[in-house]
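Chain A, query sequence.
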Amino acid sequence: MTEPTHTTESVRPRPDPNEKLVKVFDSELESEALIVKGLLEAEGIDSDLTSASLVQDAFPGLGGMIILVREQDAEAARKLIEDYRAPETPASEDDTAEIEIIEDPSTQP
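Chain A, predicted structure.
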């Protein structure tokens, strides 16, 4: 049986173990961190999700998740996260719905 051949486009380069990674996001909620990680990956930014759990005997309940990216991707990652967190449209000063009040037909003679 022959080995499948891979083109250079389909094989991802191996990560450099000496590459500098920087923190771009942290959260106490794993679910929120997973969403942000997916957002970064969808834009082609490789990221590493790391637990920031502290020793629970000394610091009970403290910890969370940290997302690290390559130093050269940090600015784009932060911008993407900022854009994602920003509201899509600014809220207007009057967010109430306007309705027309009509008389109840059952009370008319």
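The longest helix spans residues 30-42. The helical segments are 30-42, 74-85.
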